[in-house]
Each structure stands twice: as C-alpha cells, then as structure tokens.
Design a protein that fits this description.
By secondary structure, the chain is α/β, with parallel strands linked by helices. It is built from eleven helices and 21 strands. A hairpin with a 2-residue loop joins strand 16 and strand 17. The chain starts with a helix and ends in a 6-residue tail after the last strand. 43% of the residues are buried. The structure holds 5'-O-[hydroxy(phenylacetyl)phosphoryl]adenosine (DLL). The site of 5'-O-[hydroxy(phenylacetyl)phosphoryl]adenosine has 22 residues, from helix 6, strand 7, strand 8 and strand 12.
C-alpha cells in the first residue's frame, strides 16, 4: 500500500527537479527572512542566486546544534510568531533544548509524512492504533497522533507510563497497531506473556523508533506478538517522527525526499560522501515554513542507497544507523547527554565530578545507574546523611534529564580516574553494530 504514489514513486529525475526548485526557494526564504542565515551566507560570500539546485548544495554552510543554541528559541524562525502554531523540543547538551517550530502547513505536511509511514506498515482507515510515545514537548506522541488521524485510523492517545491500562485497552478496543519505542514494545510483550493474554491481542503492526534497535529485536517482537514491526526515524529539529520509515522489504528507511534533502558527509573533512559510504547524515528542510534548517548535521551515522526498492518507492533509503558522532544516549526514548548529568551533579554539595553512567537493558527495560564519588569531607558512615545525599542526587538528576536513575554513592577514590579523556558511560545494550 502506498499513501501518495505520485510523490513516493517519482522518477529520480522528477525528484531531482523538485528538489532543485524547492532548494533554491528555501535558500531564498531563509536569506531574506532569517538574519542568522543571511549572515552565515554572507560570511562565505553566497547570495541566494548562487544556489540553483542540489548541485550547489555543498556551497552552503552547515547548521549545527550550536547554531540552534545561539539562536534559541526562535532566532531561526523564518516566519513571524503570529504564523507559528506549535513548538516541540528535545534535550540539548548542557545548553538549551533543541527546538522545532511549526506553521499550520508544517503540521499538515508532517501529518502526511507520518501517514505515508503508517501506510507503509499496512495501516489504514479502519485500523485502531495506540500511540505509546510520550505526548508533550517530545514529538513522538503528537507527531504519530496527527499522522494516524490524517490517515483516518482510530487513534488511542495512550502516551507513556501505564502499561497495564495500555494492555487492557489494547484488548478491549481490539487495537490493530501500536506506535511506541522498540524497547517499550518488548516490555509490553513481556507483560502480555506474563499475564497470559496473548490470545486476546489483535496487533498486526508496530511502528517503532526514536531510538536505535536491531534486527534481533524486530525478530523477537514479530514472533512474540505475531505482528510486523517497522522502523520510523525522525528528529525534532527537522520535524519529528516520519522523516523516514522502512517498508516491508526492510532494506533501509525511505526518506521523504520531496521534503527532506539528505546527504552523507565525512564528519572529519565535512566533504560529501558517495552513495553507500558511511558518514554523518545531513538533512535540509525543503518545505518547512516555521524553521527550515539548511544542511543540518544530525550527528547520526549511516549511509544512503538510491536504487529503486522492491516496494516500488524511489526515495533514497537510510541504511542501518552505526551510532552518533556525539555522546548522546537514548534511554527509554529520552535523549540524555553525560554533560547534563555532570551539570546536575555539580549542583549537589558533597559529590565530585567523578561519575559513571551505567546503562543496561533488564527485562527489555532500559536502566540507568549513576555512580558518583562522594567528596572526602562529606563521606561518613552515617546512613541517614548518605541517604539524604542520594535522594538529593536522584532529584537533581530527575530535574535535569527527566528519568528516574538509580543512584549509587561511591567512597572517595572508588571510581576509576582517567588521565586522558575520561569515560563516563558504560552502555551494556550494544544497540549499534
Ligand atoms: O526521537 C523523533 C521520533 C519520535 C522518531 C518517535 C521516531 C519515533 P528526538 O527526540 O529529537 O526525536 O531524537 C532524535 O533520535 O537524531 C536519532 O539519534 C534517534 N532516532 C530517532 N529515530 C530513530 C530510529 C525523535 N528509528 C534522535 N533509529 C535522532 C535510530 C533514531 N535512532
């Protein structure tokens, strides 16, 4: 099933022509409407007329998280605030959150992109879909929600946090599809099995993303829940979920090239790399009105494949993600930077900057333990004061990263100290291959 065949199956020449004209238009727009971009372009001696199409893409400067941070919150918006209807955000490093702003048309295009993804997964009008991504600033909940409604499916906006209710409603409402993080779906599978409810489940498709996952996880969820699982990719800065999705052939995630212009660069030399070579994914918004980003460095490592897919779609496919160029972790779907943890620990008297984050997956649920050395002068045998300290660390961490971390206080000198680059993360999940 294809949602928008006229777009999803265009010939490569048609795609290129469309991208040429959309790229020159968006560059024009940001040059005239966003002083930040105009300055960046002027610094490298560029005028909008120099960008006639994709061929000239590499002349344009990149946009990075640092640019978003410098222009926070609306400095990169290309329309007045009165035309904006929505804000979403996700964690940045210690700086400001990464923000995305949308006009009404952006929300419509987003919904169509997600509808295309859901259609790829065989979901249509008549399906009952539970959205198990968080609603709120995170793009997962509302992004998937609008896409599913656009499709005409019956949407149950579960959000996160209540697995029992999710399973009860899944049974009562005969839910046929679910959108949530892959790790959460496996956790749900486990609870369903434990409660002996498998025979009452009618799921046929799952749309999982927001974090890296493996073919082994797909096999597990497909076998255990007797459904087909699909991979959905996206990021707040560009739009949210629905930038790309894999079809039934699972040979990469089709990126909606009529709205997003992808390239792969070598993150060291910043030069474009040819088809099939691994590097950093860089995306340009071709149609976004609210805050179109030009050559945005996603920090996601992957490669691109352009050949026509067996499903009939012609849009490029993002291959398996190999990791990120930064140290961002995704824990229970939440983006976490060690620098956020460090900054939180520094606000607690009695701790030191020596810490280790241990991330693991137990019973298909991500766990985070933060081990931190107690300062010499605060170390005591008194259980109650250590408990108080531990509680304070827990609260500060919760405020900073929005997760409940297990805190383990370690005696002074108890953690390894590093002479060179210190290591603050032990990730036992091995999500990237
Ligand atoms: O995670 C948007 C989203 C919501 C995607 C729901 C899919 C489903 P952010 O919080 O801004 O946005 O995080 C974006 O998450 O740069 C990747 O590193 C990672 N990521 C997202 N989807 C996938 C995926 C949402 N399918 C960051 N596979 C991105 C691997 C993913 N990594």
């Amino acid at each position: 099933m294809i949602w928008n065949e006229a777009k999803e199956c265009m010939s490569r020449d048609e795609i290129r022509n469309l991208q040429d004209s959309r790229l020159s238009k968006v560059v024009n727009r940001v040059y005239h409407n966003v002083p930040y971009y105009r300055k960046k372009m002027q610094e490298v001696g560029l005028e909008p007329g120099d960008i006639r199409g994709v061929e000239d893409l590499s002349k344009l400067p990149f946009t990075t998280y640092e640019d978003l941070n410098a222009a926070y919150p609306f400095g990169l918006a290309a329309v007045p605030t009165s035309e904006l209807v929505r804000v979403h955000a996700s964690s940045g490093t210690t700086g400001k959150p990464k923000i995305g702003v949308y006009t009404r048309r952006d929300i419509d295009i987003w919904a169509e992109c997600v509808a295309r993804c859901l259609t790829m997964a065989g979901i249509s009008r008549g399906d009952v879909i539970q959205i198990g991504y968080g609603y709120g600033l995170f793009t997962g909940g509302l992004g998937a929600h609008y896409g599913a409604e656009y499709l005409g499916a019956l949407v149950i906006p579960m959000s996160t946090g209540n697995t029992k209710k999710l399973i009860d409603m899944m049974i009562d409402c005969k839910v046929t599809a679910i959108a949530c993080t892959p790790s959460y779906l496996l956790h749900v599978a486990e609870d369903i099995e434990k409660a002996g409810l498998l025979d009452q489940i009618h799921l046929k498709a799952a749309i999982c993303g927001a974090e890296p996952w493996t073919d082994e996880m797909r096999d597990q969820m497909e076998k255990r829940l007797r459904l087909k699982a699909y991979d959905i990719y996206g990021l707040t800065e560009m739009m949210g979920p629905g930038v790309a999705n894999d079809c039934e052939y699972h040979k990469g995630l089709h990126i909606w090239e009529d709205h997003f212009l992808p390239e792969i660069i070598d993150p060291g030399t910043m030069k474009q790399l040819p088809e099939g070579e691994d590097g950093e994914l860089v995306i340009t918004n071709l149609t976004k009105e609210g805050m179109p980003l030009i050559r945005y460095r996603t920090k996601d490592l992957t490669s691109l494949q352009y050949g026509k897919c067996e499903c009939g779609r012609t849009m490029a496919r993002i291959q398996r993600f190999r990791g990120r160029t930064d140290d961002m972790l995704i824990i229970r779907g939440v983006n976490v930077f060690p620098s956020q943890v460090e900054a939180a620990l520094l606000t607690v008297d009695g701790t030191t900057p020596h810490y280790m984050m241990v991330v693991d997956r137990v019973d298909n649920k991500d766990t985070l333990e933060v081990q931190v050395e107690v300062a010499e002068n605060s170390f005591t045998d008194e259980v109650s004061s250590l408990e108080k300290l531990s509680k304070e660390v827990h609260e500060k961490l919760h405020q900073a990263i929005g997760l409940n971390a297990k805190v383990r206080l370690v005696e002074p000198g108890g953690l390894e100290h590093f002479d060179g680059k210190s290591k603050h993360v032990t990730d036992k999940r091995k999500l990237y291959t």
